[in-house]
Amino acid sequence: MIPRLSVVMPCYNESATINEIVKRVLESPHTAELVIVDDGSTDGTRDMLDALDDQRVKVFLQPQNQGKGAAIRRGFREASAEFVIVQDADLEYDPVDYPLLLEPLLAGNADVVYGSRFQSGRPRRVLFFWHSMGNRLLTLLSNMFTDLNLTDMETCYKALRTEVVKSLDLREDRFGIEPEITSKVAAGGWRVWEVGISYSGRTYAEGKKISWRDGVAAVRCIVKYGIEARRSRPSHLRD
Predict the structure, then answer these.
(1) How many distinct structural domains can be found in the chain?
(2) Burial class (CB in 10 A: 0-12, 13-18, 19+), 129
(3) By the number of CB atoms within 10 A of the CB, which of 21, 22, 121, 222 ranks highest?
(4) DSSP secondary structure string, 22-57?
(5) Cβ contact 142:150 at 8 Å
């Protein structure tokens, strides 16, 4: 099997999980390169990254903490394989699901594939009701602006053709990158598919970083980029 996937991994203070997730990513036969962007870690993560010894791993160090969006933007610029996927540096998302995400891309049916935590018969850890409701409400609001029918806009697992990645003029520094990517994918008229994935969510005590403030910022981004998307969407795809 020819590796055809650039895995872009934003990373911030993940010393407890970084070695294990890197191991899992590199075990995937689909991984051509692993692009890790450390976003100013101060917990020893950078020392662990410095010790990695695999020619497929490329590590880029942000001068200070700038946010997940800024790290993803940097990773997207460095990605060079045929397809790109975003992989968090914790253990919530499992690289064993890469074949599921790649299937519609390899078949030539999709340009972008979202991995849904809510449309899956696969195992997922049961955690926060209000957190999941917040995700669903943000997805609903995003769908209203983009006219997509996603079930999980906020998912980390987004697999894209590299030509799509390079076409996106992304600006958000924090978690607003998720609705921004979705709005700009919709505005470009790219073919979007969704597949169910497994999910092992972690608690805040275990290191979860997103907060209600990020939810408020996501609403702002959904409205801002959603309006832009509707204005710039190809005419044959508009209402």
Answers:
(1) 1
(2) exposed
(3) 222
(4) HHHHHHSTTEEEEEEEE-S--SSHHHHHHT---TTE
(5) yes
Alpha-carbon distances, residue 125 vs 2, 21, 99, 189 (angstroms): 32, 18, 21, 34
pLDDT digits (tens, 9 = 90+) for 150-181: 999 999 999 999 999 999 999 999 889 999 99
38 near 47, Cβ under 8 Å?
Answer: no
Each residue's pLDDT tens digit, 95-145: 999 999 999 999 999 999 999 998 866 666 555 565 677 788 999 999 999
Q: Alpha-carbon distance 6 to 109, whole Å? A: 19
Instruction: Count CA within 13 A, CB hemisphere, residue 35.
Output: 20
The enclosing domain of 158 has a CATH number of: 3.90.550.10
Q: Which two tokens stand for residue 148?
A: 């997509």
Q: Mark out the alpha helices in the chain (DSSP H runs).
A: 18-27, 45-50, 68-78, 98-106, 129-146, 162-167, 177-187, 212-232
pLDDT tens, residue by residue, 37-90:
999 999 999 999 999 999 999 999 999 999 999 999 999 999 999 999 999 999
Bridge-based pairing state of the strands 83-86 and 158-161: antiparallel
Q: Which domain holds residue 26?
A: 5-237
Tell me the C-alpha distance between 218 and 6, whole Å: 26
Nearest Cα residue to 92 out of 208, 171, 6: 208
